[in-house]
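Summary for the steering committee. One of the milestones for this cycle was to obtain a three-dimensional model of the protein with NAP bound, which we needed before selecting residues for the alanine scan. The sequence and ligand used are listed below.
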Amino acid sequence: MKYRTFLKTGEKISLLGFGTMRLPVKDGDFAKVDEAESIRMIRAAIDRGVNYVDTAYMYHDGMSEVATGKALKDGYREKVLLADKLPLWMAKTPEDMDRIFNDQLKRLDVDCIDMYLVHSVSAPVWKRALKYNAIDFLEKKQAEGRIKHIGFSFHDDFEVFEEVLKAYPWDFCQIQLNYMDTNFQAGVKGLKLAGPMGIPVIVMEPLKGGKLTDVLPQSIKDIWDQAPVKRTPAEWALRWVADFPEVLTILSGMSTMEQADENLRILGEADPGSLTDTEHKLIQNVADEYNELIQYSCTGCQYCMPCPVKINIPDIIGRYNDWFVYEGNEKIMSDFKTWVNPKAMPSVCEECGACESHCPQHLPVPEIMKKAKEIFE
Ligand SMILES: NC(=O)c1ccc[n+]([C@@H]2O[C@H](COP(=O)([O-])OP(=O)(O)OC[C@H]3O[C@@H](n4cnc5c(N)ncnc54)[C@H](OP(=O)(O)O)[C@@H]3O)[C@@H](O)[C@H]2O)c1
């Protein structure tokens, strides 16, 4: 395993971190974690050098924390930095932060969480963090020895990232980064902002949740086939992230032992700056080809918003595009069902056209909503 240094403490952190959002499950039921297999995988990864394990309150309906806690019994807890997160959107009052935190300690059966993050920060989540004095709460937990390091994970635009990053001397942050999301959310710009500020960056979704590996369009396979060195799509994607020296660790949500084996091997070899120019060009060609498959070039500028019937228009267009880019990958469908508000589905569009008249790209939004309804509803 390769290691990178967490400058705050001098600790060596494994380049592969174990993300527990996509543990193996039984009967295809997200909430029925296959505990025995999850424990086997997490412990095998730790035995082979992984020392960072990431969970969250809502993963697998709470069962990720439980399985992670069990995996860390028998002496494994001491071998890792354990990361968990505060889901502020689930806190209806400031007191709820304490209730959730205590639930987490109970589920994990630990008395301290090493890396504690404000979960999935976006503009509204950050607003709530300020309203509830969440930082004071976290610092209190830190003073009590219940949390070691304070960070945040992020899902919004770069501008919001910059505001949040500069608002507090964070110990670390966590962003989504892969070769398709270079300009999405915090993106490479966010990584390069955090680096010189001395805020280590933990990367999530390096394989775009598996969309870069599951179902490959033929045109993408053809480009990978041109590579002088033969590597799997997972290896190209992980090596692309590992190439950035600003990255402290890369979380992958491995769902099988084979995936864990492969990712352990890859991140046991990848040094920063080790990809050649030719290899970077090849990865860029793959990204360009994926982008060619996009149906509607929405830039996410939000000029179409607010929608009178509350549809999150850029989000729906993004999911519609993903459906074509990633060949109808079933994850796009399950993500849609998980994250899109049932009261603001594309079918509630009343074709008022207010969005269309404001769209700088002149996208036919009501028509796209109809097409998205056909696919997703
Ligand atoms: N804080 C946040 O807001 C937030 C958000 C997202 C994620 N996270 C954390 O970050 C972690 C990483 O994100 P992620 O789970 O999206 O990571 P990811 O590595 O992008 O995706 C994981 C998925 O990729 C596929 N995969 C993994 N290794 C593979 C391999 N070697 N070959 C082929 N396919 C492979 C598997 O999907 P299939 O088995 O389905 O093919 C797996 O479920 C999460 O587990 C979670 O802990 C945090």
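Key point for the committee: The chain has two domains: 3-283, 313-376.
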